[in-house]
Amino acid sequence: MLVGSEGCLLVDAGLPGSATKVEKALLKEGLSFKDVRAIVITHAHVDHAGGAAELRERTRAPIIAHKDDLPYYKREAPMKFCSTGWTGRLFFKTPLPHESYTAFEPDVLLSNDDTFDLSEFGVSAIVKHTPGHTKGSISVELGNREAMVGDLVASGILIGGVIRTSHAIRPPFEDDPKAVAKELLRLVDAGFDRFHLGHGGVLNGSEVRRHANALMRIS
Q1: What is the pTM of this model?
Q2: Exposed, middle or buried: residue 132 (CB in 10 Å: 0-12, 13-18, 19+)?
Q3: Phi, psi of 63, rounded to the nearest 5 degrees
Q4: β-pairing, 168-169 with 154-155?
Q5: What pLDDT digit, counting tens, does each position of 174-208 carry?
Q6: What span, in angstroms and rounded, lies between the C-alpha atoms of 202 and 1?
Q7: Phi and psi dihedrals of 134, rounded to 5?
Q8: Cα(92)–Cα(45) distance, rounded to whole angstroms?
């Protein structure tokens, strides 16, 4: 969640049925659904996009996403999963990655390398295409040189565990590791030094660079 001068923005929507949890998080900040100005969906996996349709209905806020994941958002194509190791292979055998969710079409649809300025919603940030986790994955780049990168990188034991949360790892699924590395290095080279993840603790720039360089060595 990003709280701005004119309300707040949600970054990702969680699994289907997450609206109650989101409402509780808003209440902790003294906010409600009516204060949500926009919903940014970083990519089409169910744990990030599954609750988007319901949250748009509850908040009346526009959804921002990238067109390269549109067939998945509209439920017109099965989600693609490229496992990064044994964790991904085991996870793929569970029901969760394959869980369906209510189809939706984003209100703001980025294409190619478009950026979208969030300042109209009271937040000093942009949304930018950062492909690699999925073809249409996007990130939020804040004016204070922090970035919310979804699942471009993860941390911790077993994805966001209680230990080693400052150690970068690959998420269970990743379409193109070199594309991920390119985007992470671009961000670090631009001065970004705090990376907020979909799964795991906040990473600093040097750790993200180490991880990106390791990805570049994958054959």
Answers
A1: 0.95
A2: buried
A3: -100, 135
A4: antiparallel
A5: 999 999 999 999 999 999 999 999 999 999 999 99
A6: 15
A7: -125, 170
A8: 12
